[in-house]
UniProtKB/TrEMBL annotation:
<protein>
    <recommendedName>
        <fullName>N5-carboxyaminoimidazole ribonucleotide mutase</fullName>
        <ecNumber>5.4.99.18</ecNumber>
    </recommendedName>
</protein>
<keyword id="KW-0413">Isomerase</keyword>
<feature type="binding site">
    <location>
        <position position="12"/>
    </location>
    <ligand>
        <name>substrate</name>
    </ligand>
</feature>
<feature type="domain" description="PurE">
    <location>
        <begin position="4"/>
        <end position="155"/>
    </location>
</feature>
<dbReference type="InterPro" id="IPR033747">
    <property type="entry name" value="PurE_ClassI"/>
</dbReference>
<comment type="similarity">
    <text>Belongs to the AIR carboxylase family. Class I subfamily.</text>
</comment>
<dbReference type="Pfam" id="PF00731">
    <property type="entry name" value="AIRC"/>
</dbReference>
<dbReference type="GO" id="GO:0034023">
    <property type="term" value="F:5-(carboxyamino)imidazole ribonucleotide mutase activity"/>
</dbReference>
<feature type="binding site">
    <location>
        <position position="15"/>
    </location>
    <ligand>
        <name>substrate</name>
    </ligand>
</feature>
<dbReference type="GO" id="GO:0006189">
    <property type="term" value="P:'de novo' IMP biosynthetic process"/>
</dbReference>
<dbReference type="InterPro" id="IPR000031">
    <property type="entry name" value="PurE_dom"/>
</dbReference>
<keyword id="KW-0658">Purine biosynthesis</keyword>
<feature type="binding site">
    <location>
        <position position="42"/>
    </location>
    <ligand>
        <name>substrate</name>
    </ligand>
</feature>
<comment type="pathway">
    <text>Purine metabolism; IMP biosynthesis via de novo pathway; 5-amino-1-(5-phospho-D-ribosyl)imidazole-4-carboxylate from 5-amino-1-(5-phospho-D-ribosyl)imidazole (N5-CAIR route): step 2/2.</text>
</comment>
<comment type="function">
    <text>Catalyzes the conversion of N5-carboxyaminoimidazole ribonucleotide (N5-CAIR) to 4-carboxy-5-aminoimidazole ribonucleotide (CAIR).</text>
</comment>
<dbReference type="InterPro" id="IPR024694">
    <property type="entry name" value="PurE_prokaryotes"/>
</dbReference>
Amino acid sequence: MAEALVGIIMGSQSDWPTMRHAAETLEALGVTFETRIVSAHRTPDRLCDYAKSARDRGIKVIIAGAGGAAHLPGMTAAMTPLPVFGVPIESKALKGMDSLLSIAQMPGGIPVGTLAIGKSGAINGGLLAAAVLALTDPALARRLDAWRSRQTASVAEIPSDDET
Ligand code: RP5
């Protein structure tokens, strides 16, 4: 199997219904990825191992989804020089505002590219990771262009009464 270029990590199994949209986006673009549950709080040693080994294992970009006190993207970024994109998971209590602020408000020096809360953020995390890889992969750049063209073509000009 081809080596994974993108690491999709998440704090919990409960994040997967959101993070699978990042995986599906990468799959549609023909980008190899791996998925792991890595909790900053419950499995801190797994997080250290993952973040510290990612670059040497060939990973180029990490997409990290977490909810609530969402330390996973920031702690991952602290332990790897790879680009890290954070996806705030929509939490029950605060609708993901807690996740968003935890991920976005990094101190200067350790960047995390923060995406939208929930599904949109996961999709865009996949697209951003692909865009980074496309800088040095012309075939992927063409696939990304085609993906955008298909999206543009799918938008109707006139609204329809059809609810489906
Ligand atoms: C975070 O806590 C996870 O990223 C998840 O979004 C949230 C809740 O986790 P569970 O209690 O559902 O496992 O670490």
